[in-house]
Design brief:
Strand content: 15-25%
Number of helices: 4
Distance between the termini: 29 Å
CATH class: Alpha Beta
Structural class: alpha/beta
CATH topology: Transcription Regulator spoIIAA
Shape: globular
Number of strands: 7
Largest sheet: 5 strands, mixed
Strand order of the largest sheet: 1-2-4-6-7
Number of domains: 1
Order of helices and strands: EEEHEEHEHEH
CATH superfamily: STAS domain
């Protein structure tokens, strides 16, 4: 799975470059997120602007990242397409994750917390 990453101050921006986070890619996504968290990234913005489908495996991988972070940081989501947002609403994950309309908004929110 292709993931673009860049650091802006203390915030790590992660952007999947594929259309789907599903059973085929979820394990790899989860491993990469885990590696970033273990290596000390405590403020992560997940940009989902390229993603138009997430299945339960993909959702589980994203939730896993949030759980791994625990109370030692924050994982927020931005630029969510409507197809994915409907899944977040259906599963009530929109109440679990902070979701921002743009990368800049998400960075700003995390920078203020950090």
């Amino acid at each position: 799975m292709q993931l673009q990453q860049k650091k802006t101050g203390d915030v790590l921006l992660v952007k999947p470059l594929e259309k789907r986070i599903d059973a085929a890619t979820a394990a790899e996504f989860k491993d990469k997120m885990s590696d970033w968290i273990v290596s000390g990234n405590r403020l992560i913005v997940l940009n989902l602007s390229e993603v138009d489908f997430i299945d339960s495996s993909g959702l589980g991988a994203i939730v896993s990242g949030l759980k791994k972070m625990g109370n030692n940081g924050n994982l927020v989501i931005c630029a969510v397409r409507e197809t994915v947002m409907s899944l977040f609403r259906l599963t009530r994950m929109n109440r679990v994750f902070e979701i921002f309309s743009s990368e800049d908004e998400a960075i700003q929110a995390l920078s203020n917390k950090g």
